[in-house]
Amino acid sequence: MNSWAILSIVFIILILLPNLSIIFQFFSEPNENWAHIREYMLNTYIKNSLILVVAVGVLSAIVGSSLAWIISAYQFPLRNFFQWGLILPLAIPPYIGAYTYHGIINYTGVIQTTLRNQFGVTVDQQYFDIMNMPGTIFIFVIFLFPYVFTITKAFLARQSTSLIENARLLGSNPWKIYFKIVLPLARTSIVAGVSLVILEVLNDYGVVKYYGIQTFTTAIFQTWFGLGDLASAIKLSGTLMLIILGLLIAERVLRGRKRFSFTTTKVKLLKPVQLKGVSKWVAFSYATTVFAVAFIIPFIQLIYWATLTYEQFFSEDLLSVIGNTIMVALIAATLITIMAIVISNFSRLHRGLTAKLFPKVTILGYSIPGAVIAVGIVTLFIGIDKFMYQNTLVSSYVLSTSIFMLVFAYVVRYLAVAYNSIESGFERIGTSFTEASRILGQNITKSFFKVDLKLIRGAIFGGFILAFIDILKELPLTLILRPFNFETLATNAFQYASNEMIHEAAVPSILIIIISAIAIYFFHHVLERE
Fold first, then answer.
1. DSSP sequence for 266-318
2. Helix/strand/coil (H, E, C) string of 90-117?
3. Model-level pTM?
4. Average pLDDT of span 157-175
């Protein structure tokens, strides 16, 4: 057994440990609450969750993949900016976006106020009601489509252009090329991005709670915190996890053995074609509209609200809050990226049952609500602390009150984010180069560092960025597992927003956006120099 296999097994065990208690309790004897939920409420949770999953998944795939193709294949005004600018919506937490858009279009918002005061127009409120299922779908799509965009663009940027050039020579128009060539080639990347979007939707609590949509997640929180019934909450979580695993396994079966990778070392990178005339402005307008709706409009509104309340927030120890946020995000994202590389490389090079099961395990944390993961991790760390204390290894409980527990929770929760990106990169390059290196006498480790690592740098950086930004915005785990007096920008924003003090939530939200934007900009230009 080589070092990659050993490390992969160790990492998988670490991921499984906090979930084992949840899995075991899922099969425990049901109580009266669970019987009531299963008979009268479960169908509503399943129906609403499936509507959100299907609608958001399809729309995110359309928006994300089409933008990735336009940015990768064509040259038009501000294209270089949109390459990283269209990732910026990820910097806005969806629940903050939900509050913000509701504030923009409600009766006292800027739109209706302007119509009444400037034009004397009073509108029917039902046409400006965003707190419903279509509004929820809108919020999720505009703030989550960058998952699909980022991963798909990383794939297309280094895809061989031979098929596309041949299609153009044969007279295919851009639409046929997109639907018949690009989509099949980028299917793995698109599915990877959509899977992250779906998992985010199923795990979200802030948006569906504020907009009044009953889903599995709201049911879990209501059952746990409202009824004080953790056992039923775990059963709901287990049901949700089984549904997600079923969807992912079904996708793997449908995809079968399809693989798309380079078969020659003469890889010609995709070179964008200059658009002219109407096409140039259509592409520019499409990218600009999406960017404005997903980032500019909510960001400007947040800035306006911040000007009203900034003094209150800046009276706190701002540098400490920013430092805490960046520190835990950097540490956790680095660990996540390393673990994702090890596990995905092992799964790529081995075809046994173990290698097929490992990718499924990596998404366990992402398929379980953060608050439930927190319970499993607290139970695990208290048990370890108790064992060490009873055996006089420590003089007090140290792990369960440390920042290490929070970082470990981030790793369990967000490993799937980086894993999907890195797995997509590995699937793009296949195993041909690795096998050639092995034939020339290099072992697996040397082959990885000398060959594979250089070919998947884009996927690695993409996975790191996505994990870093998600951790910056993370809320439930941080609220439950943070050490005493440990604040992050996300906890500050939530505390204000949950009390309907959305104006006060603007300042920490803007700081999250700025830090995320700097990370996106920096890593984008690192990739451009590669």
1. -PPPP-PEEP-HHHHHHHHHHHHHHHIIIIIHHHHHHHHHHHHHHHHHHTS-H
2. HHCCHHHHHHHHHHHHCCCCHHHHHHHH
3. 0.80
4. 66
